[in-house]
Design brief:
Number of strands: 11
Oligomer: single chain
CATH class of the domain at 18-49 and 122-266: Alpha Beta
Mean pLDDT: 95
Strand content: 15-25%
Largest sheet: 9 strands, mixed
Structural class: alpha/beta
CATH topology of the domain at 18-49 and 122-266: TIM Barrel
Order of helices and strands: EHEEHHEHEHEHEEEHEHEH
Radius of gyration: 18 Å
Low-confidence stretches: 1-6
Helix content: 25-40%
CATH architecture of the domain at 18-49 and 122-266: Alpha-Beta Barrel
CATH superfamily of the domain at 18-49 and 122-266: Phosphatidylinositol (PI) phosphodiesterase
Shape: globular
Distance between the termini: 28 Å
């Protein structure tokens, strides 16, 4: 098994992978809602994974898409709506586990939470935060909120926008961050050439999916290269117990999953 990373943040542990609830427990409850996060915490996850946007009136809210259409009964861009408008929407409206035959959470009080509500509700869980919105910038209010709740040491922050990752690192260098897409690509290419030691990028963790199209990204060789750089490796989104078992045997540091109960049960940790 490849040697594991020894990070200065609580994002890797020797001997077993950390379990991160993807948008809470998106396979069981409406994603990115407080009940979804609470269920994941009740089951014993190590951390929560979520996504943030900024409202028209400058409030950070937790939602994956820039539009509310897929997850709520509303329409339109988050950045064009106030928090009050977003709070009127039913965040459980479209959730279904049977291909749309039933929608069990419609009208059950699920709402889009603010990031502040999540920080307040789960002070003892570290949180993996994906900055989805690029314009208008959300870095300053995001950093201010982290400071207000003293979460500098128990958040890990990433984005598909490399500029956002760079801006966050400049603004809050003491907090952990995820390797940007260009950094991840660079490390992957270098690992294929046996030159992973030349990485020279930032962050405390790399968080790829196992496959990028037909390209197999997360392999034992890549895991070893990541660890030799002193980084942790978390894989998303892993929902099959067989895949969880295989990746754990290869030495990954974290599994991001819609079904954290499956992972916790597999490793004998379900509460």
């Amino acid at each position: 098994m490849p040697a594991r990373a020894t990070p200065t943040h609580p994002f890797a542990q020797n001997g077993r992978p950390l379990i991160l609830g993807h948008r809470g427990t998106a396979g069981h409850l409406p994603e990115n809602t407080l009940p979804s996060f609470q269920q994941a915490v009740d089951w014993g996850v190590d951390g929560l994974e979520l996504d943030i946007h900024l409202t028209a009136d400058g409030v950070l809210v937790v939602c994956h898409d820039e539009f509310v259409d897929r997850t709520t009964n509303g329409r339109g861009l988050i950045k064009e709506k106030t928090l009050a408008e977003l709070k009127q929407l039913d965040a459980g409206y479209h959730w279904t586990s049977d291909g749309g035959q039933t929608f069990p959470f419609r009208g059950q009080g699920f709402t889009i939470p603010t990031l502040e509500e999540v920080f307040a509700a789960f002070p003892e869980r570290w949180i993996n935060i994906d900055m989805k919105q690029q314009e208008p910038p959300l870095i300053r209010p995001f950093i201010d909120l982290i400071h207000r709740y003293g979460r500098e040491q128990d958040v890990m922050v990433g984005s598909f926008h490399a500029a956002a990752v760079d801006a966050f690192r400049r603004g809050l260098p003491e907090a952990a961050s995820v390797a940007s897409l260009p950094e991840t690509r660079r490390l992957f290419i270098l690992s294929r050439l046996g030159l992973g030691r030349l990485y020279g990028g930032g962050g405390q963790a790399v968080q790829p999916s196992e496959y990028n199209g037909r390209l197999h990204v997360v392999t034992p060789r890549f895991i070893q290269a990541v660890h030799r750089c002193g980084l942790a490796l978390h894989v998303w989104t892993v929902n099959d117990p067989a895949d969880m078992q295989r990746l754990a045997a290869w030495g990954v540091d974290g599994l991001i999953t819609d079904y954290p109960d499956r992972a916790l049960r597999l490793f004998g940790r379900l509460l």
